[in-house]
Amino acid sequence: MEKFTQHTGVGVPLRRSNVDTDQIIPAVYLKRVTRTGFEDALFAAWRGDPEFLLNQDAYKNGSVLVAGPDFGTGSSREHAVWALKDYGFRVVISARFADIFRGNSGKQGLLAAQVAQEDIELIWKILETRPGTEVTVDLESRTVTCDDVVVPFQVDDYTRWRLLEGLDDIGLTLQHADEISAFEETREPWRPRTLPAKHLPPAEIKAARPVPVTIGRPD
Amino acid sequence: MAGTLAEKVWDAHVVRRGTEGAPDLLYIDLHLVHEVTSPQAFEGLRLAGRQVRRPDLTLATEDHNTPTLDIDRPIADTTSRTQIETLRRNAAEFGVRIHSLGDADQGIVHQVGPQLGLTQPGLTVVCGDSHTSTHGAFGALAFGIGTSEVEHVLATQTLPLAPFKTMAITVNGQLPPGATSKDIILAIIAKIGTGGGQGYVLEYRGEAIRSLSMEARMTICNMSIEAGARAGMIAPDETTFEYLKGRPHAPEGADWDAAVEYWRTLRTDDDATFDEEVVLEAADLEPFVTWGTNPGQGLPLSAAVPVPEEIADANERVAAERAIEYMGLTPGQPLRDIKVDTVFIGSCTNGRIEDLRSVAKVVQGKHKADDVRVLVVPASARVRLQAEAEGLDKIFLDFGAEWRNAGCSMCLGMNPDQLAPGERSASTSNRNFEGRQGKGGRTHLVSPLVAAATAIRGTLSSISDLGEDPRAFDGSPLTDLQSV
How large is the ipTM? Predict the structure, then answer.
């Protein structure tokens, strides 16, 4: 993972609460089997609106998203983080993040910076009054600077350390492989295993067929 | 030391305690995998030259993308087909058990785990799907994870996790007739909000919860994530043991006795404390429906669409205005007047045999409203077989409903089962987000009983609107047959 110490980029004031992961990336875009190339899927439903922030020249190169509370609720799809990163976002600022989204961000080097709602209101005002204003997010000092406004943000110590060092979780865990093996020795024998597989008696599953379309139905 | 249920399960899985702010490393007993959130994780393993550490604790199913019609033919959508073929290839390459489309054990991952007896009390269960909280109904600590974490569990069978806070949600008394476990959880989410559970593991307790069947408990735990919680749990009891006994992967003989002895210890100690407590009276509950675009925007069916001007909180007011506009509703409009185009009965929330039975009892001998499409999608192929063995398929077909193969289907519309723009559904699923069931689609979350009554009348309705006694429509079999 790339190290993150400080980032400066155009702030995008997304005045919406409860931006769920279906809004960040609709399910139809989740069928891809790659980890990159999701930039077109970000906020896909809203991107069709010419007035949407990312369709405005001042904001379209934004890299710091400043959103309302409860950002990233709903589905666990990490594609939401990939889409934000692929578009060019490095930081999302919100007063409250959904747990899974925050966890996914930390794994991918996208900083989820938690800022008090009253401070977000101040930043929104600046970004809306002077579109294109840059925001600086400093992970060392845990501060967000936007024009003359300097506010603190929260991020847990462990995520901060991993981001600053650019560390990969699996590598860190595998340093403790011996302890994992030792733990496995203590597991009770009755704990379930998927293999060898046990089943109910085999049965044939018949395919359902389409029924004639009823009145007024779209195809 | 006294502990809550969640703390006990957590403590039994700590491989390594975190120091200086680092998270604990937890062992994962069961890892469920599906096609959407796993391809990039397997690719990561391949690139790093890593193996799946414990294929014998891993199970894959195909559910999100799978069509519910013509499953014996090639999948028409090529990207869906590629994703499913990728899962099959990865399962073969890494030695992971998979239940593919057409297999009798295929189905939504959160139904397949329980029905095989793999989901058991006291386990840690993860899956790259937020509705993994479903398995908490057995007293397991079960939560959804992202794809990086899927890769982490595949490689190490562990996860580094920061401790959760605990919240007790006590539901006292007994549900009135016509109200179901779906109404309990919708009422809880409306009460604490979509962010109310953030950082918490919820434990559902109280007489109303204890009286629920396993399937009804799964409905509640399933939607814990809609309150923002990482997990939801219910302490195991005789109902749990009864459900598990005799299932393919349930312990047998002396192992069963040892397991049950341990499972009985999995309850919150009387002197343990929760970080937060919420209390509801079951008697106050009635059929609940959502009117907005997040699961917290719900009200009793007898209420009306909110009037934004009357909402004090500015953020909530704006959210309500936006939701009402998206949903094409009028402030103050009675919820009962809302006309739907589609009724969807299915999903990991309400696609189980008891759900199908209660719907079948309501619609038996009736015909659906003329201009309503009714989709019935069992949660798993076994649920479909069971329903057919009980004759429920004929009841649905006579009613004018479509009887489909198993999968996630219209819950999230990754397969062809979608709403058209502007279409409105009453759905027994779990999310009413904008565009969730198809771009521009409008979703009202409801219980199976409300879905059934709505399919008959064409407008959001409860059993009492049919002039019938709701007590007749529980999840018990219409005929005596073995369970799934």
Answer: 0.94
